[in-house]
Design brief:
heterodimer, A: alpha/beta, TIM Barrel, Elongation Factor Tu (Ef-tu), domain 3, 8-stranded parallel β-barrel, 22 strands, 23% strand, B: alpha/beta, 8-stranded parallel barrel, 9 helices
């Protein structure tokens, strides 16, 4: 059975990028009932377009309905689920028994996937959800590879595993620090990520702070490319990338990186060293925080924590491609670069290709030496066919 | 009429309970809960509770990993053989295991953050879950709505530290490069804030708490509401404190003290504890702009 690569989409643009770069399925939130309230999220018109686009490209669409609902949050939910079914959405991802049951009743064609917000760690908990009619379980990110293998021995429900992206420091769905410190509801889309803040650590009246950095619960991001083969060996139904707030370039790099590795595994039964190195180099283009393997090889300890370290988002991504005609691309500037720089283009197909910026000019034909105005449209020659899904980046460590 | 159910670290303190409102005692084993006491629950403990005509509750406020399930099964069978009346559990797996083993234990599902509406609680009731503890993350108005929609089914935590985060990680060990348990008198203080948050770290995980909830202002209404159990659940504080707290609730219910007087007296018992009135549980916002 083909293992699904499931990518996030904060908006239609990112959904199309995810699908074009090889996601077998995409997930996003609507305007209501979804976590990530600050993601752009999709109107019903957007969802309609998303489903048409994804299905045309052979990809599935899952809509997150994953809030931990309060009494008033059920208003309009029944109609919303029926609309999603009518739009041919493939599944919802939910964290509430009542929502699951409602969906099965009013929109039975929708699959229901139980969100990681339920923190499902074991086969007995999976059995509960299976008995309720769940079609899939998104396992808690705290489960190790050894535990997944054990769970598979006792459970037949398809499992979805996170393979990349931000990690909740605490069990997902079991943390309300944000509610306490900011009144923003962690379980209804308002999480302020207060776990990433700095804290003093006390024992009675004694301060236990280290001299160079304060205590934090902040987690490194998960990146599993180094143990992807072991994950694939557990035969999950789906591998999930986190990041509905991430940029289109991020989505493109991460999806392409994992797509390549999964395809190698499916063709050969393993991922070769060179293939792994290439996948990793694509993923590293979009790095923004230090990575670790999550809990897949056990409790991470200190290597899973971030202390007082600013995000390390790299500046490799320099421009979008808006148009391409007769060897000249219209590009939208995102980061500084200049004439003479050696850049590369990331495309949905094939390996990144290099070129040297021979010249830049405005749409009005004025020459430009340095591209340093974000969102400015410029023209430049690119000696390869590029399109709206191409991303230009400063030559990094592509191997 | 609701009944008071009280957590004791040491069951022998049961003889010091003065209030007639108390109908149940909660005990907990360190391995299967957030409890920091080291003694294990024995058959004699449960017999003692029954001798005093109380119902015996056991708290299992942990999520369990796959390799622990056999041990959990054995534990549940042991609890039944001890004639434990109710198990308060955080992991829905416990419901499944109790059914799988054919045990007669009543289970009260208490996932802390997840039961924030009456629809979910009605669904759980319909699925055979014996009882539920309403989340403390919703305003009192919503709590009453839940209680009214599912009468005679819910329990409510009325007093005790408010759990704000539960993690599998061992944050303190990671930070201090150590490998031990941090059980009592450890606190986190966000660098720009005054309040200190109690934290427990064990080999099984990490529990972070906020202020201590107190419900003097509402206790008379709650006492007569269709809540089954009103839980006084202190994970850190000594039983001596808990018993004084029970006396204060008893005094408010019996019109011997006003809620304000009870709160004043409470603050005298242990001056270092920050309290939050149950009425202060606010509606939360979904995004930054509304704060």
């Amino acid at each position: 059975m083909k293992i699904e690569l499931l990518a996030p989409a904060g908006d239609l643009e990112r959904l199309k990028v995810a699908v074009t770069y090889g996601a077998d399925a995409v997930y996003f939130g609507g305007k209501q009932f979804s976590l990530r309230a600050r993601a752009s999220n999709f109107t019903l018109e957007d969802i309609k377009e998303a489903v048409i686009f994804a299905h045309e490209h052979g990809s599935k669409v899952y809509v997150t309905v994953n809030i931990i609902p309060h009494n008033s949050d059920f208003d309009g939910l029944s109609e919303y689920l029926q609309i999603l079914q009518g739009l041919d959405v493939d599944a919802i991802i939910c964290a509430s028994l009542a929502i699951l049951q409602l969906c099965k009743k009013v929109a039975p064609k929708l699959e229901v996937h139980v969100s990681t917000q339920q923190t499902t760690l074991n086969s007995a908990a999976i059995k509960f959800w299976q008995e309720q009619g769940a079609d899939r379980i998104v396992l808690a990110r705290e489960v190790s590879l050894a535990q997944i293998r054990q769970i598979k021995e006792h459970s037949s429900l398809p499992l979805e595993l996170f393979i990349h992206g931000g990690m909740c420091a605490n069990f997902s769905g079991r943390c309300t620090i944000s509610n306490l410190l900011t009144n923003r509801d962690a379980n209804r889309g308002g999480c302020a990520q207060s776990c990433r803040w700095n804290y003093h650590l006390w024992h009675k009246e004694e301060l236990l702070d280290k001299p160079d950095y304060l205590f934090s619960m902040g987690s490194k991001d998960m990146c599993t490319i180094e143990c992807l083969e072991e994950i694939l060996n557990t035969q999950p139904v789906s591998l999930k990338i986190e990041g509905r707030m991430k940029t289109a370039f991020y989505i493109a790099c991460i999806v392409k990186g994992y797509r390549f590795a999964i395809d190698c595994y499916e063709k050969q039964g393993y991922i070769g060293e060179d293939q792994l190195r290439y996948s990793r180099s694509l993923i590293e283009l979009a790095s923004n925080r230090d990575w670790f393997l999550g809990f897949y090889r056990g409790l991470p300890g200190k290597q899973g924590q971030l202390y007082n370290i600013p995000n390390t988002a790299n500046q490799l991504f320099v421009a979008n491609v808006k148009d391409y005609k007769d060897g000249v691309a219209t590009i939208e500037v995102r980061n500084n670069f200049k004439c003479g720089d050696r850049l590369a283009v990331l495309n949905p197909e094939g390996q990144p290709v290099e070129f040297v910026v021979e010249g830049l000019e405005t749409l009005e034909g004025e020459p430009v030496e340095v591209a340093n105005k974000p969102m400015q449209l410029l023209k430049t020659k690119i000696p390869y066919e590029v399109n709206e899904y191409s991303y230009i980046f400063a030559k990094g460590k592509i191997e | 009429m609701s009944e008071f159910v009280v957590y004791l670290q040491n069951v022998e303190n049961i003889s010091n309970i003065n209030s007639n409102l108390v109908k149940g005692i909660i005990l907990a084993d360190k391995q299967f809960s957030s409890a920091i006491t080291t003694s294990s629950i024995s058959k004699q403990d449960i017999e003692l509770i029954h001798q005093f005509k109380y119902r015996a509750f056991v708290k299992m406020d942990r999520l369990f990993e796959e390799e622990e399930l056999d041990v959990v099964r054995e534990y549940l069978m042991k609890l039944e053989s001890f004639n434990v009346d109710e198990v308060i559990y955080t992991d829905i797996a416990i419901k499944v295991l109790i059914e799988e083993l054919g045990l007669k234990l009543n289970g009260i599902y208490a996932p802390e953050t997840l039961l924030t509406n009456y629809c979910d609680i009605e669904s759980l009731k319909a699925e055979g879950v014996s009882g539920c503890v309403i989340s403390k993350d919703i305003p009192l108005r919503d709590v009453y709505m839940v209680i009214q929609n599912v009468p005679g089914y819910c329990s409510l935590r009325i007093h005790g530290p408010i759990l704000v985060a539960y993690s599998r990680r061992q944050y303190i060990n990671a930070y201090l490069d150590s490998n031990k348990e941090y059980l009592k008198n450890y606190f986190l203080q966000e660098e720009t804030r005054e309040s200190k948050l109690p934290i427990i770290e064990k080999s099984t995980g990490n529990w972070l708490y906020a202020s201590c909830l107190q419900s003097f202002s509402e206790i008379k209404y709650l006492k007569d509401s269709p809540v089954v159990n009103l839980l006084i659940d202190n994970c850190f504080y000594e039983d001596e404190y808990t018993l004084k707290v029970v006396d204060l609730y008893d005094a408010v219910v019996n019109n011997l003290l006003s809620p304000e007087q009870a709160l004043e007296n409470l603050k005298q018992i242990e001056t270092t504890i920050d309290y939050m009135d149950i009425n202060e549980l606010r509606e939360t916002w979904l995004d930054k702009e509304k704060v």
